[in-house]
Amino acid sequence: MTTASIPLPRPVSAIGRVPTWLLPLAVIVFAYAGIPLFASDYLYDAILAPFLALSLAAVGLNILTGYAGQVSLGSAAFMAVGAYAAYNFNLRVEGLPLLASIVFAGLIASAVGVVFGLPSLRLKGFYLAVSTLAAQFFVQWTLTKFSWFSNYNPSGVIDAPALGYVFEGPHGRYLFSLSVVVALTVFAARLVKTQTGRNFIAVRDNETAAKISGVPVLHTKLLAFAISSFIIGVAGVLWAFAYLRTVEPHGFNLDRSFQILFIIIIGGLATIRGAFLGAALIVVLPLVLSRAGTFLFGSYFDSGVLDMSQRILVGALIIVFLIAEPDGLAALGNRIARRLRLRSPTN
Amino acid sequence: MGLVSTNVAEWGGAKSAARSRQILTLRGVTLSFGGVTAISDIDLDVAEGEIRAIIGPNGAGKSSLINVISGVYRPDRGTIAIGDTVFADVPGSRVARLGIARTYQNIALFKGLTVLENVETGRAATVSSTFIEQVIGIGRARREEADTRARSEAVIDALHLTSVRDRLVGTLPYGVQKRVELARALVSEPRLLLLDEPMAGMTAGEKQEMAGFVLAARDRSNASIVLIEHDIGVVMGLSDRIAVLDYGRKIADGTPDAVRADQRVIDAYLGVAHDDDIIEESHV
Question: pTM for this one?
Answer without folding.
Answer: 0.88
